[in-house]
Write a structure and sequence with these properties.
This protein is mainly alpha-helical. The protein contains six helices and two strands, in the order αααββααα. The radius of gyration is 23 Å and the shape is globular. Mean pLDDT is about 85; it is low at about 10-15.
């Protein structure tokens, strides 16, 4: 009778890697961070775009925001109300949306994260147009520690 081939189940229990779930508290924290990033993502996209539109043309009109985000104007109107309520945006009648100091600070931080992620992806060899697009989603889900590692990698790659 030929010898049977050993399988992972035959391995001694103390040598077999455990591929189970992490502790529940770890799962809770991981999912909490993802939910928090998702909630912040839309706000950050809006304030960053408003900042860019103001820098480019002096104001951020609702129609321009809708066009660039690819959403309907009523969607933008609801979000602008939320941003006003949260103290990030000021709206002026017959004018566009303008950022408060807090809104501009958030826009700068979001833009810096985006640029760091984009530079990291390019340093890895990702084509610039794809890196720009991918960074748009990744930037909101990167921890400060990971972002610092990205920035160090880019610095070292340039050295």
């Amino acid at each position: 009778m030929p010898a049977r081939k050993a399988t992972p189940a035959d391995a001694a229990p103390d040598r077999a890697p455990k591929a189970g779930l992490p502790d529940a508290s770890v799962h809770v924290e991981n999912f909490r961070q993802v939910r928090e990033a998702r909630r912040a993502e839309l706000v950050e996209d809006y304030v960053e775009l408003i900042s860019d539109l103001i820098a480019d043309g002096g104001e951020a009109r609702q129609v321009d925001i809708a066009e660039r985000l690819g959403v309907a104007q009523p969607t933008v109107a609801r979000m602008l109300q939320r941003l006003v309520r949260d103290g990030l945006v000021l709206q002026k009648p017959y004018r566009g949306a303008f950022l408060t100091d807090a809104g501009e600070k958030l826009a700068r931080a979001s833009r810096a994260r985006h640029q760091a992620v984009e530079a990291f992806l390019v340093a890895l060899g990702v084509p610039p147009d794809i890196a720009r697009r991918d960074a748009e989603g990744i930037e909101h889900h990167v921890s400060p520690e990971t972002l610092a590692a990205f920035e160090a990698f880019v610095r070292d790659a340039k050295a």
